[in-house]
Amino acid sequence: MSTNLITSTRSRPLGRIPDTRAAGIGLALVTAVVSGVAVFVNADAVARFPDATTYTTAKNLVAALVLCGLWLASGRPVRPPSGADERPRRPAWGLAVVGVVGGSVPFVLFFEGLARSASVPAAFLHKTLVVWVALLAVPLLAERFDRWHAAAVATLLAGQALLVGSVADLRPGTGEAMILAATLLWAVEVVLARWLLHGYAPLAVGAARMGIGVVVLLGWVAVTGRAGDLASLAAHQWGWALLTGAILVGYVVSWFAALARAQAVDVTAVLVAGALVTALLDAAVRGAPLAPDAAALALIGLGAAGIAVRARRTPAPTRAAT
């Protein structure tokens, strides 16, 4: 990929949602809300399973079946429904790569890394996703990243650092390396998906991501001797998998719809606002105090708002050769 991968983001309908940057930012905010709810629910759900990998596989299996069903029921759209003839063709192997680097391998690395990490602030490594996306999207997709973006991203990272705890406590180790590797793979997925979405319908990319990804996850579960755990899950455990899998469907649908319309850097940064939703749910349902995290949440909200405002005011790039 090179700078000639960028394509026009001129207004063009994708289904019923306008193909505009403003719509993309709005969808990114929806994704942030869904993400915040997912983090809150997952904290309870994962405790009902033998281990995090078995839980993730069950949840992703539900999401994959639903997304593939939706794709089939909608007439198996591969190209965007409007303006398809004007959009560049993208290789089918890109969908397979998204399934591997986005829907499977990083999930295993992330959860196995958390299990091996002795450092609580290790979770902060995942919050650096927006940095890696920016480092890839600017040269490969020719996305705009100015001082306003830099200030907003720095504000987001500062807020996440305060929310997670002392980042200075991070220590190099196998667990930390696995979490960082998962984050880097997800960054690659974001940039690749943004490129693919100029030629594929968001639902097709989402179904490929989860469908191919869950096949890899099932293989990993079998290789590591967890197939019995997955097969013997109780009804209440599958109930949790159905709930969290449905939430994951909402996340994937809104996420790829956002990436189809706005910069990868912008939608990834806005996604960080999901931490606000999780904190509010923790306070409302579990009685967790908001006061200790007030400064962190304010910084996250400020950074996400800054990115959203900047994205709406940035002029659309001109069409380049593909």
Structural features, described:
- By secondary structure, the protein is mainly alpha-helical.
- The longest helix has 25 residues, at 21-45.
- Helix 2 crosses helix 11 and helix 7 (147-164) packs antiparallel against helix 14.
- It has one domain.
- Helix content is 68%, strand content 0%.
Structural class label: mainly alpha
Main sheet attributes: strand count, strand direction, barrel closure: none
| Count of individual helical segments | 14
| Computed CA radius of gyration, to the nearest angstrom | 19 Å
Tally the structural domains.
1
Q: What is the N-to-C order of secondary-structure elements (H for helix, E for strand)?
A: HHHHHHHHHHHHHH
Low-confidence stretches: 1-15, 317-322
Shape: globular
Beta-strand content: under 5%
What integer is the average pLDDT? Answer: 85
Task: Give the termini distance in whole angstroms.
Answer: 10 Å
Say how many strands there are. 0
Please give the share of residues in helix.
55-70%
List key phrases describing it.
mainly alpha, 14 helices, 322 residues, disordered N terminus, disordered C terminus
Could you give a quick summary of the protein structure above?
With 322 residues, the protein is mainly alpha-helical. The protein has 14 helices and no strands.
